[in-house]
Design a protein that fits this description.
mainly alpha, globular, Helicase, Ruva Protein, domain 3, 5% strand
Length: 287
């Protein structure tokens, strides 16, 4: 195992907890007497303590190589440095922040987008946020975060614009609905974990999401109350049923859902969930 065994926190596919403990037991005989011609590399997506059975088993015969994911500020500094050294460009701090978020903290993607931005800027020395908005596409995750922010703040106009932009990129309405439902569920779970006193890092590991996603999810969990999240899930379910039941066209169902989520909560307004045969909780016109 002295040929390169590694457990690298933050990278790969081995999880923590009982699964990795069971894996350590299964690997123990081999780790005690590894093939001298084999290089076995184990990667772990969760950070494991040095006393974890898997870490101890690997350390006894090989090496543990920490490989933590870079943080947002570290990636921003790297992006600004790369733009300067590789292209002689000054990447403004606000542009660096937006770029890192749109690249979902992936360094390889970040480098490729920086190369495109440098070409787009041409003879200009500075790259600003407007350049990033013009060149770098939104990710699905970012679109859903923005949409949940908009409906949570009751910004109906912005929410409708985001939904139409999503559809304009050729994305399926049902895909967006599924992503939105997942985002609401994760936010609800994060809210419960915050109430238990868990730190954002612990919440991210418990939810098995990227640190970038965990940071955004925790931020939204602090802004949205539990009653609203419950209403949102109910409304999403009704929109899903109206689409799949042929009651409402998909795009209209999404737009109606956004308008509904931007309304005052049903408890205050007296609104009740719409029955089957309605479009997003309201009767169809003429129905």
């Amino acid at each position: 195992m002295d040929h390169g065994d590694a457990v690298a926190p933050g990278q790969g596919a081995v999880g923590g907890g009982r699964a990795s403990a069971a894996l350590a037991d299964a690997l123990a005989p081999y780790l005690a007497n590894p093939s001298p011609s084999t290089c076995l590399v184990l990667t772990c997506r969760d950070e494991l303590d040095s006393v974890h059975p898997l870490c101890r088993a690997v350390a006894a015969s090989g090496r543990l190589i920490p490989a933590p994911l870079p943080g947002r500020s570290e990636l921003m500094a790297w992006a600004r440095s790369y733009a300067e050294t590789a292209w002689g460009k000054r990447l403004r701090p606000d542009a660096a922040a937006l770029l890192v978020d749109r690249c979902q903290h992936e360094r390889i993607l970040l480098r490729g987008e920086l190369d495109k931005l440098a070409c787009y800027a041409g003879g200009r020395r500075e790259i600003g946020a407007a350049d990033v908005l013009a060149v770098v596409s939104k990710t699905r995750e970012e679109s859903v975060f923005e949409l949940l922010d908009a409906v949570g703040e009751r910004q109906a106009g912005l929410a409708l614009r985001l939904v139409r932009e999503y559809g304009g990129r050729g994305e399926e309405p049902l895909a967006l609905l599924g992503l939105l439902a997942r985002r609401v569920r994760l936010t609800w779970q994060a809210k419960a974990m915050l109430a238990q006193g868990l730190a954002p890092g612990e919440i991210g590991r418990s939810l098995s999401v990227h640190p970038y996603v965990a940071e955004k999810t925790v931020r939204q969990a602090r802004k949205l109350d539990e009653a609203y999240l419950m209403e949102a899930l109910e409304a999403i379910l009704e929109a899903d049923l109206s689409i799949k039941g042929g009651v409402c066209p998909p795009q209209l169902a999404l737009e109606t859902l956004c308008a509904r989520l931007c309304e005052v909560r049903r408890r205050a307004s007296g609104r009740v969930p719409g029955p089957a045969g309605t479009c997003g909780g309201w009767p169809r016109s003429g129905g």
